[in-house]
Amino acid sequence: MHFKRITVFCGSSSGSNNIYLEQARLLGKELAKRDIELIYGGAKVGLMGAVADSVLSEGGIVTGVMPEFLKNKEINHANLSELIWVKSMHERKTLMSEMCDAVIALPGGYGTLEEFFEILTWAQLGLHNKPVAILNTNGFYDHLLALIDNMVKEHFLKDANMQMILISDNITSLLDKMESYRPVNVQKWI
Description:
Elements: E1 5-9, H1 18-33, E2 37-40, H2 46-57, E3 62-67, E4 82-86, H3 89-99, E5 102-105, H4 110-124, E6 132-135, H5 142-153, H6 159-163, E7 165-168, H7 171-179
Parallel strand pairs: 1-2, 1-5, 2-3, 3-4, 5-6, 6-7
Helix pairs in contact: 1-2
């Protein structure tokens, strides 16, 4: 499956290790190289700005989606292919999900996790069948993945729920996994 658009959820901060910025930039270059448009949160700062700048520098297309209450923060990226203003964070997430063919989470904070898990939950419930992936740069998500594994061991999730998450610390490998992804019916809990 070839993707036209991928949504990337990531931090508006750069993190404590330069590898996070490096990987965000490399992801942007690889998306542009593969002629995949970037859909993201619209900011010019942190990992968000790095991935957007990288796609743009390679001649790629970038669409930002930003809630109106952030206008006064002046963090929106001014040089995007398109910037869409929405009323709320929920509307932002919904639109970003509707616009894309797949989702990748890079390192980030509460917002990144919230966005990632809602999209993943929607897949679990059968509301979409898009690949949902984690670029596990520098082992950033190792503890979270251990928690999810524990959820399976404690029977709060089925193993198929965990297998829905595509994971790699290598950009090329992750995108290749996403392109070969075949949805699994995991809603048998009903």
